[in-house]
């Protein structure tokens, strides 16, 4: 049974879209991760982490006292499968009023061309919220 060339293109494109939407898992010790220390209690920093993800367009997928994760849904744009990033934010208490924050954007292997790194924007939003 022969599959027409146009059907192959449609099947290939569909497979590419599905694969590009599968984001990887963020890693706290990734060399590309962004680290900052805030002189704020961990509870306040955790709230700022959630808010920063929401402001930058992420849906909250995990919300724990020391970890927050957001997922930005993939979009079909100039590059098929742009978007689909997952951002993880790790919080480590550093005394009564100090918190170390690590932000990492994970990207899927296939969708890496259309995806972007959100580390700086998420950290900037957290800094704005915590320095008011």
What do these coordinates show?
The protein is an alpha+beta fold and about 130 residues long. The chain is built from three helices and five strands; from the N terminus they run H-E-H-E-E-E-E-H. The chain has a five-stranded antiparallel sheet, covered by helices on one side. The longest helix is centred in the first third of the chain and has 16 residues, at about 5-20. The termini are far apart.
Question: TL;DR of this structure?
Answer:
With 132 residues, this protein is an alpha+beta fold. Helices cover 32% and strands 24% of the residues.
Write the layout of secondary structure elements.
Blueprint: H1 5-20, E1 34-38, H2 42-55, E2 59-64, E3 67-71, E4 86-93, E5 99-106, H3 119-130
Antiparallel strand pairs: 1-5, 2-3, 3-4, 4-5
Helix pairs in contact: 2-3
Question: End-to-end span in angstroms?
Answer: 67 Å
Q: What percent of the residues sit in helical stretches (DSSP H or I)?
A: 25-40%
Tally of separate helices: 3
Along the chain, the helix and strand elements come as HEHEEEEH
Radius of gyration: 18 Å
> Biggest sheet: strands side by side, in what order?
1-5-4-3-2
**Strand residue percentage:** 15-25%
Mean pLDDT: 82
Unreliable stretches covering 5 or more consecutive residues = none
Structural class: alpha+beta
What characterizes the major β-sheet? Answer: 5 strands, antiparallel
């Amino acid at each position: 049974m022969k599959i027409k060339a146009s059907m192959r293109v449609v099947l290939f494109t569909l497979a590419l879209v599905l694969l590009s939407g599968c984001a990887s898992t963020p890693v706290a010790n990734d060399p590309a991760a962004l680290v900052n220390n805030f002189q704020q209690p961990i509870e306040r920093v955790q709230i700022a982490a959630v808010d920063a993800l929401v402001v930058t367009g992420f849906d909250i997928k995990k919300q724990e006292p020391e970890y927050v994760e957001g997922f930005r849904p993939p979009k079909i744009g100039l590059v098929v499968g742009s978007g689909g990033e997952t951002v993880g934010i790790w919080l480590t208490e550093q005394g009564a009023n100090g918190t170390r924050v690590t932000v990492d954007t994970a990207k899927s292997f296939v969708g890496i061309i259309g995806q972007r790194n959100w580390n700086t924007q998420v950290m900037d939003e957290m800094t704005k919220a915590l320095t008011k």
